[in-house]
Amino acid sequence: MPALNHKPINYDSWNFDGQGKNIIRSLNFVEKRTWHIALPYQDTRRGEKGHARDKKSARKIVIPSAILHDTGWSQLTEIERKLFYECESDGKGKQVWERYEPILRARHQEQGVCLSKKLLSELNYPSELTSQILEIISQHDTRKGFLDENDGIMRDADKLWRYTLPHLELGLKERNLNPDEFAQFLFNNINKEGFFYSPVSREVAEIELKNALYDWKRKQNN
After folding, report:
1. pLDDT at 22
2. In a domain, 160, yes or no
3. Is residue 2 a part of any domain in this protein?
4. Which of 140, 142, 157 is nearest to 198 (CA)?
5. Residue numbers in the chain where pLDDT is lower than 50
6. ∠ CA(63), CA(83), CA(96), 5° rounding?
7. What is the model's pLDDT at position 139?
8. Which structural domain, as residue segments, surrounds residue 169?
9. Could you tell me which residues are beta bridge partners of residue 44?
10. Is residue 5 domain-resident?
11. Model-level pTM?
């Protein structure tokens, strides 16, 4: 049974410009201000548009966290960002990106906290909420376990982006992966312990992965 009657993304009507047009109408005034002030920092890594997402919980914490969580990538150097997709061997049995990924993820979290603190200050965001937002951002890619529901939902939303067509296309293009093997890798992560916080997110991930793979194959045949 589909999770909460979830309907997969219709990519024929989806806007891929990374300017937030798919979510902006669902945000309130403060959330829109947060989105617009963070927008210059949303294009991350290589050709990857910002993927802030909306799931309902404590909106004043979850939505700003989702909008701001990956802005730290914009503070890394171009050389650092390119390492994230470097597929050459490092001479020690791994590709270069695998060697540097933990370092880069930690770096973008640190930079994301600094930048988010600055942006939230400019918005005069309440300090007690800011501290919770920054704590979520500080280890959103590396924390073992979940702080609370807000942390879990934000990080589920972050991971759900990996099950969409833009991420599938990015992985296949930048790392020259086999589409079926990449899809199987993503599928295997869905039920891995500690990967998703919510059972609903696992259901949505499976639906969206099938949808993304179908659309990718459809585009290849056109």
Report:
1. 86
2. yes
3. no
4. 157
5. 1-3, 52-54, 56-57
6. 125
7. 96
8. 16-221
9. 48
10. no
11. 0.85
